[in-house]
Amino acid sequence: MPPAPNPPGQRAAALRWDGERLHLLDQTLLPAEERWITLAGVPDTVDAIRRLAIRGAPNIGIAGAYGLAMAVTTNPSRVAVRAAADALASARPTAVNLAWAVERVAAAADGATGELGERAAGAAARAEAERIHSEELLAAMELARHGAELLRGATRILTHCNTGALAAPAGGTALGVIAALHDADPSVRVLACETRPLLQGARLTAWELQREGIPFELLVDGAAAGLIRTGQVDAVVVGCDRVAANGDTANKVGTYAHALAAAAAGIPFVVAGPTSTVDLATPDGTAIEVEERAADEVRAFGNAPVAPDGVAVRNPAFDVTPSELITAIVTERGVARAPYTESLTAL
Ligand code: MRU
Questions:
Q1: Ligand 1 contacts CB of residue 194 (under 6 A)
Q2: Which of 5, 216, 225, 252 is deepest in the core (most CB within 10 A)?
């Protein structure tokens, strides 16, 4: 049975696991409609991740983990598990959480098969996916606490994309930090960038902040630099999809411009994410694969065309902010600062 709608006034839930099936709130329909969909295996999980029905680095990792657990339960043969893991891990390339979580579940299934035979693989895979989910929940809660301590005193916070409960368990990453700051100081206000082309800020962050009663104003992405320069922002806080070993960070396209503006104005630019988003195997930002998405996402605004038919488009979904522009990276294990090669390894 699909879950009941998210109760108004409470923190939203993006996904629910019932022990056998994964239920997702289809984020492509928000804020107009709250519709839950039920996934039963790999093809529908890959499809949901690709079309952003579920999104945000930690949550696509969790969805991928449950997707593989369902596949292992249906067919635990090692060949089938590898094919399923590869299909899931490549659904979106930039957020390292997806491949990381899928490989953890694949390894758990493989270990159980080796020790106890294929029949044990499904239970082991489901248990590993549930473990990842609860670890990410705890991580989000802890990093919100560290981030709020770091930013104490800042009251006008600018953020980009959606990094709240729709993107990660608990209250999310950057938005979880902002919510914790607001809990401690009700004068905290958010400037939420709309986040073209798919409007995760306008559709999702605004929906979440409104539900939670956190005061905010929505702005077009191009307004951010001017507001920062004229002293109207105390700090920029964003999420991350992959943090390289040297601290270079991939996040939703437009993040780099905010980092440049923050550096020029001398205000903190803080990245928040769980350690599952830190990829020490990627030496620096040049090695991060940036997902290019469909041209029609740019040629239209929602469903309304805004450019002539067939015009050429560039649509990188992410950009990389070099570590020298990042004031601090907040994780559940604490706050990393430059030199990141040392501080991230130490975490
Ligand atoms: O394309 P999306 O909507 O999945 O991009 C999401 C982001 O860029 C987030 O900032 C990032 O995943 C961190 S989510 C807690």
A1: no
A2: 252
Residue among 297, 290, 295 at smallest CA distance from 317 = 290
- pLDDT value at 247 more than 90: yes
Q: What backbone phi and psi angles, to 5 degrees, belong to 87? A: -65, -45
Quote the mean pLDDT of the chain.
Answer: 96
Distance between alpha carbon 251 and the CA centroid of its chain, in Å? Answer: 9
Q: Separation of 292 CA from ligand 1 center, angstroms?
A: 14
Q: Could you tell me the distance, in angstroms and rounded to a whole number, from the CA of residue 95 to the centre of ligand 1?
A: 8
Going from the Cα of 27 to the center of ligand 1, the distance in angstroms, rounded, reads 12
Q: Which of 241, 248, 279, 319 is catalytic?
A: 241
CA distances from 53 to 35, 38, 83 (A): 10, 11, 23
Establish whether 248 is a catalytic residue: no
Average pLDDT over residues 77-90: 97
pLDDT digits (tens, 9 = 90+) for 196-243: 999 999 999 999 999 999 999 999 999 999 999 999 999 999 999 999
CATH number for region 142-346? 3.40.50.10470
Ligand 1 pocket member 275 (CB < 6 A): no
| Ligand 1 pocket residue status of 200, Cβ below 6 Å | yes
| Residue 3 banded pLDDT, cuts 50, 70, 90 | low
Among 159, 200, 237, say which to mutate for ligand 1: greatest number of ligand atoms within 8 Å of CB.
200
Distance CA 159, CA 276 (A): 21
User: Which mutation among 49, 195, 240 tests ligand 1's pocket best, with the greatest number of atoms within 8 A of CB?
Assistant: 240
- Domain definitions of the chain by residue range: 15-139, 142-346
* Helix pair angle (121-150, 96-116), 10° resolution: 150
Q: Which of 50, 60, 162 to mutate to test the pocket of ligand 1 (most atoms within 8 A of CB)?
A: 162
Give domain 15-139's CATH superfamily. Answer: translation initiation factor eif-2b, domain 1 (1.20.120.420)
pLDDT of residue 24: 98
For strands 249-252 and 242-244, give the pairing: antiparallel
- The predicted structure's pLDDT at residue 50: 98
pLDDT, residue 155, reads: 98
